[in-house]
Queue: 3 jobs
Job 1
Amino acid sequence: SLELLKTYVASTAKIDVFGHMLHLEAQRRGEQQAREVVFLSDNGHGLPEMRRREFPKAHVVTDYYHVTERLYACATVIKGEGPAHEKERKKFWHGLKDRLWRGHVTRLIALLTEQALQRAPRPEQLSALRDQTAAHILWTHVFYLEKYQQTMDYPAYRLRGWPIASGTIESGCGQFGDRFKHSRMRWTRRIAN
């Protein structure tokens, strides 16, 4: 029988050091014997580069809930903020999430691109939209979806039994945060590591 255990890797070091530590832990846990290695990420803070360096053969999954948060930001721009727009905004957001859940990322990108184009032409750089908040938000999320769409095939991932959300990772971060930030706790960088 296969025993499933969680292990954690945490560090205050830079991401390249952390990535190496993470890869060493994966090797210790039997990465070489694994049929599949899945790297689940929100693609922030240098994670894509670290993943390419440390786990070049891993299957990559973008965190589903992170993407739905981005879709909510888009729904807020498109349908409006505040209580007066809440029902319409949530209905629209659920429609966006449904497309994502079903793997219709191309259609999702097309819909959001159409909405973004109504507010501003596609910019070469997002900084060109500095004074156009709504367009800046929409184009930011369209660019993200375009860049990582190959890592958002959630129906296929679910069929394979892969994780699509980082809840256990976030929970682990919370546990570490609670421990390190507990009242009367004081840490040096060396001891924290």
Job 2
Amino acid sequence: MTYKVIQWATGGVGRAAIEGILDHPELTLVGCWVHSESKDGKDVGELIGREPLGVKATRDVDALLALDADCVCYSPIVSNPKEVCRILEAGIDIVTPLGWVYPKRIDTEAVEKACAAGNATLHGTGIHPGGITERFPLMVSGLSRAITHVRAEEFSDIRTYGAPEVVGEMMLFGKTPEEARSSPMLKLLGGGFFQSIDMVADAIQMPIDDQKRATHEMAVATAPIDSPIGPIQPGHVAAQRFCWQGLVDGEPVITAAVNWFMGDQNIEPVPGSDPDLSWTFGDKGERFEVSITGDPDTHLTFKGWHPASIEEGLERNNGILVTAMHCVSAIPYVCEAEAGIKTYLDLPLIAGRAAPHLANRG
């Protein structure tokens, strides 16, 4: 038995997800939604650089919902709640990296009604948030007693992220510090990271303050830095750190942070920045980190999710690939789950699958 899957959008995550669906022994790609007219009607194989697959991309939502699919891998740039509800009402499960990791403090009434109407399941996943920030810390937290702090942190060269409009016009790299302080990223990403913090706090039974903390630190170029959005001029933003924290009596106990740099050469913090912050990758290089402070402490470093070069990252970024695969690997488990919003706490252990040439031996 295989589950019939529709891929919703073909950006970086969407293309990687299609590859994962094609190689997964329990999944069959039956449809693909695209946003742009230029992709409408094209064979999906062409969109991902493979031979024709016999599945045409389309902008026709009605046609896709009529395919009797089991699940949608939903990965447009921004989620459309009405669209999400429509898919669920049609009886099709959704796995997505766009929220709902642990929607404790957001209004889910419409989505819950849609799940009930279609007897469908919604699962939010990803990597940060959606894995590094809550799933992996919780996995190793059981190895410690008396936990006092949980930290999940990313250190990445943002020059490898192949979305120049996002990097330049949303993240506001290359702008002045005054301009970059208006970046929407602290609020946009905070919606997901605050869900992660709530999941960790509830799972380890740590009652945190209702009010959480969010901070934004910056560093600027001291010499021109080449980047995919053009040269970063001296005095303009070349590195940013966004941090979200759960507190107990005003003291941080759960921390999620991203450190995004245009490399780590020729940059210096803006005046007034936290003096304890480092603006270099150091000997560890690009990485994700998870730390549990308790008895004993646990420290994990995740490598392999960053490309070896800027050029490689712009062609195929491993960070995007792991985000997509966390979605794809969850699909069989979500299809077997009961209706409603299901988090990692509701599902069994999600595992990947062996390569086809190994899985098909004998």
Job 3
Amino acid sequence: MKPFIEIFFIFVFPMAKPHKNIVFYLLSLLYTGVTQLRNLLFDKKILRSVKFSLSVIGVGNLAVGGTGKTPHTEFLLRILKDYRTAVLSRGYKRNTRGFVLAGEKSDAGHIGDEPFQIFSKFPKTVVAVDEKRVHGVEELMKRFPETEIIILDDAFQHRHIQAGLNILLTDYKLLFTNDNMLPYGTLRELPKNSERADVVVITKCPAGADLDESRYRRQLNLLSHQELYFSAFEYGSICPVFPDNPVSVRLNSEVTVLLVTGIENPEPMSQYLKQTVGSFVELTFPDHHNFSKRDLGEIEKKFYEITGEKFILTTEKDAARLKSNRFVSEAIKNNIFALPLEVKILNDKHEKFIHKIYDYVRKNSTDS
């Protein structure tokens, strides 16, 4: 069952955009049947789900990418800074297999771009990747027995582990109840499977949006015990991708930015730049894109076509891949910056969200 699902994912995962035709609709029905059968086997305890003694927090979504899992994982790490916390991911698109621990020599190819981004920003945090999550947790507990909390990145579908607290993310512009199953839409599971979540977060909420909780609870068909939160991104000060970069820049109305992104949804970043810079040119690539020599030549060419004060701007996730790319020229190294972002909980529920996380960790520690 599991190998079939993984093969199917290899086929449909590149199709980040929904395909609205009868062929893809029929394929989505087939995919729905497979995923529902798998979930039924877990529900009936035919497939085994392991519960660990330490606190395990799962961060995931029902859709394929684009909801902000990595920033929300980083948000949790900031909340839990006083605990011994580890992060476990599968390490999507890495060139290694099995359990790999992040270290000084790690790069995006070694552990995946998102785990490398997390490790770069939180170097004291234990970060590991393993496509077999149960084995990954066992290895972490064996190597780091002092670990108190493990955050599972993109783990909502990985039911072989029973997370003590499941956080489900959904994009404000495409709620899971408004989406369809792959490959007709972007869902990996039916919306009703959201009932496994303890917390649901509507992410990337725009400024000024009417975030009426009761309305969204009805729209998402949430159960009474499920807590709902809204979040938005706040952008920080830009920083050089390469530490030896001698150039100092800032966002203002006099500068032109070449925006280079290889993420699922660059629109929020584009909207932010519209409000902060004089103009910008955009080069977009697929999510998790590995920049080729030709791609980097195109980036350099576009950059030199821009006149006046200028620099290249990218995301932290893209920066993670570019740092170890041997084709990056000195011209790009000296002019490329990353725009960091952090999560903000809206509707004056920031403290409530923090208390929710603390309450789970403390209760689980007591129960253990």
